[in-house]
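Worked example 3 (structure in, sequence out).
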């Protein structure tokens, strides 16, 4: 890796791993984190988990896996330009959705409702739980034993109550400090990725139309420019060219504004980053345009009746599964039965959260269908 900015996370200022390990040979600590994430079971499951569209609705829609790869791509280009730790942003980006339930946000809401009396369910916290506890692959420790900075990047949000239980990785929520710039960048890359690919998937599925989204400034300004230069472009190419220009606008603005914020706050090192206000940010104008795009997607895509039907189905499937496993934990696979002896609700939540969309649908069928397959 080329030289890092003084405020970047590096192998010299990392707070390290919970279980001490020998330094890796031929790769950096954060490359090792990334490699462990890619080899995890939870990572492979992302291929069959919903972003907005259920996996089997079409082969071209984003899944959590392709979403995570797009986040990593955007985050890495930003990190490279700003001389932040590219390996770290890649690791955070690839791991950030590992704790997601099947069926996207509807699934998380449903599981959270089921877990109301049992400490709740939050996908950020679950992502951390996956890499800290649930992956069983290494002889010397549970989980992946990732570096502190990768773990803090995965834990984007957290209630104060949970923060207090989490030890060192929860401290920043209590002390009102910021995570590393790498974590801040991965977070914004996530937002850039999903806003833009949801526009693409929304248009492709026909749930939103070009006419509708032409009311969004960020989209309209690029659409008009592309139409003017290429009046005879096919609609697919017109959409793609418009979206790539939107991503470019957001990324360039983020680069410029972040550089400016680092300078304006006189940031010299990682400790300065932690005590400053959030430094990775869009300019006021672009933030406003981005907000407009988000609210458009909320109204026209995420609350579209076809998406709502999928959400209702997700609520039903997850609620049914949760109740069935709570009533009789002998229905759980053996490893979860064992865990259920200590905390049944958490074991059930871990099992359900780990399911892919199609596994949850099949499991529901196996438990509730009267007729044979
Ligand atoms: Mg995401």
């Amino acid at each position: 890796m080329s030289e890092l900015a003084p405020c970047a996370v590096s192998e010299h200022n990392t707070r390290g791993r919970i279980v001490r390990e020998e330094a890796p040979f031929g790769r950096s600590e954060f490359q090792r984190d990334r490699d462990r994430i890619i080899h995890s079971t939870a990572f492979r499951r992302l291929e069959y988990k919903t972003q907005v569209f259920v996996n089997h609705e079409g082969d071209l829609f984003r899944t959590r896996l392709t979403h995570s790869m797009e986040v990593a791509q955007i985050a890495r280009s930003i990190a490279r330009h700003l001389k932040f730790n590219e390996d770290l942003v890649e690791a955070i980006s690839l791991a950030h959705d590992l704790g997601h339930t099947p069926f996207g946000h509807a699934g998380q809401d449903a599981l959270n409702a089921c877990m109301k009396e049992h400490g709740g369910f939050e996908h950020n916290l679950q992502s951390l739980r996956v890499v800290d506890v649930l992956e069983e692959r290494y002889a010397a420790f549970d989980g992946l034993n990732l570096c502190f900075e990768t773990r803090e990047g995965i834990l984007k949000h957290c209630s104060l109550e949970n923060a207090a239980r989490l030890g060192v990785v929860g401290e920043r929520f209590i002390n009102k400090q910021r995570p590393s710039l790498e974590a801040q960048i991965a977070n914004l890359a996530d937002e850039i990725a999903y806003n833009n690919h949801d526009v693409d998937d929304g248009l492709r599925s026909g749930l939103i139309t070009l006419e509708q989204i032409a009311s969004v400034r960020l989209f309209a300004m690029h659409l008009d420019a592309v139409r003017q230069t290429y009046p005879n472009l096919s609609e697919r190419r017109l959409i793609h060219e418009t979206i790539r220009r939107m991503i470019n606008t957001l990324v360039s603005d983020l680069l410029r504004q972040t550089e400016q914020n680092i300078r304006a706050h006189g940031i010299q090192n990682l400790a300065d980053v932690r005590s400053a206000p959030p430094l990775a940010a869009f300019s006021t104008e672009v933030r406003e345009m981005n907000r407009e795009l988000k609210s458009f997607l909320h109204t026209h895509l995420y609350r579209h009746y076809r998406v709502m039907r999928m959400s209702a189905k997700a609520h039903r499937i997850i609620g049914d599964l949760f109740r069935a496993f709570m009533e009789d934990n002998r229905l759980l696979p053996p490893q979860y039965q064992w865990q259920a002896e200590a905390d049944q609700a958490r074991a059930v939540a871990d099992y359900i959260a780990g399911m892919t969309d199609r596994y949850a649908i099949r499991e529901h069928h196996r438990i509730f269908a009267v007729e044979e397959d």
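Notes: Residues 235-264 form the longest helix (30 residues). Residues 67, 71, 96-97, 190, 194 surround magnesium ion (CB under 6 Å).
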